[in-house]
Amino acid sequence: MTRVEVAIVGAGFAGLGMAMALRRAGVDSFVVLERAASVGGTWRDNVYPGVACDVPSHLYGFADHPNPDWSALYAPGGEIRAYLERVAAVEDIVPLSGTPMLGAEWDATADLWRVRTGGAHHGEIEADALVLACGRLTEPSIPDIPGLETFPGPLFHSARWDASADLAGARVAVVGTGASAVQLVPELARIAEVTLFQRTPAWIVPRGAHAYSDADRASFAADPATLAALRSELDAEGEARFASRSGDPDAAAAAASIATAHLESQVGDPALRAALTPDYAFGCKRVLLSDEFYPAVASDRVRLAPALAAVDGRTLTASDGSRHDVDALVLATGFASTQQPYADLVVGEDGTLADHWSEGMTSFGSTVVAGFPNLFVLNGPNASLGHTSSVLMLEEQAAYAARAIASRDAVLRVDPSAEQAYTDEIDRAAASTPWISGGCRNWYVDDRSGRLTLLWPGTVAAFRARLAAADGSEFLPAPIKRGTS
Length: 485
Fold this sequence. Notes:
Blueprint: E1 2-9, H1 13-24, E2 30-33, H2 42-45, H3 77-90, E3 101-107, E4 112-117, E5 123-132, E6 155-157, E7 171-175, H4 179-189, E8 193-198, E9 204-205, H5 214-222, H6 224-240, H7 242-246, H8 249-266, H9 270-275, E10 288-289, H10 293-298, E11 302-306, E12 308-312, E13 315-318, E14 323-325, E15 328-331, E16 346-347, H11 353-356, E17 375-377, H12 390-407, H13 416-430, H14 434-437, E18 445-446, E19 451-452, H15 460-468
Parallel strand pairs: 1-2, 1-5, 3-16, 5-17, 6-15, 7-8, 7-15, 8-11, 9-10
Antiparallel strand pairs: 3-4, 4-5, 12-13, 13-14, 18-19
């Protein structure tokens, strides 16, 4: 049995960020559990052709680890994974790789978490505090399509890319037109004939990607102030995008106009253009960035079809009745985002985290949860963003969690009224946004309650201020022990 002050689950951005925050707060007794063989999180798992970040590289990294060597404005996935590996090495963070969390239960008698692990380090870990840094886009969502199991060819989700499948010259179906598909389809179209099944078109704006030259990278390396100034500029640009994503009428209209002009300039066929035009408010679903998707769909290498309705062997039937024979099937259908898989594994004072979140994820400060003492969740309830880098959010969460852990003199139990007040605050802020009232279905909203449970409905600056204002009153007073006065 291992005994530590803090157990961290996950070795992606959130897990590494938490480990660094603990060290800076003077907490060195921790362990990082990672079910996979290495660090990297989503950037380790997603290796499909064209995978890249849609947040500027110099904003998509830790503040304490600027990287002058990014190759482009938007880094490819492999570079981001390599960046995380370097950070882990520099910080001397060595996760217990190949070690999934099988379960975690709060022991009220001993006031600690008992974490059961499997794999390479099978056993039990006792920890005063538990940090779930498991990511929010980890478990692929597989659609319930009649006959899907009858497909005889290569069939896989984009997040579980099968590199052994030879797709050159093949007829490949891609299901979905979200962020992954927008990156993947242009790459597949270079080597294969693609049938693209679209349920709902996305708002897509120009990516405007450019590579950084050797001179650029040399300048960043030689003058950290230049790099810091660029990060500050990108931060301001990202925060400015919040207005258009959250429903400001003028900002949304201007952004929608840019997206519409982008579509019109790249797709000449009126019928195809109409099929690719969203009928919901700008920002309701994730706004995508691409300069290559529309030209690919407009080419003779891609056929656009409505939503996939059924599969019968190699024959795929769309919702309009059209039939398409294909050799391989790729599901770019997103992730289980609002119902996190780890929630069933965590047992607090009154049941599982999944029970507590049965009508949608809730918390205080997007980080701590009533009924789960000394538990901290990064990238959990209302901690995602639709306008800028999520790394900025998780660094704030990690700093808050590290402060609370380092300064605690008793078990930290969230006051249920504090969680309810924070939840009400989120609901009020979200009510008038396109995420709730924009006329679309999105992965930000929990279908069970209709609540916005993924996105923070504000700027990063507002979130930073919100956590900075947390003074400990979100936790219940420690009970007076018997025999003391």
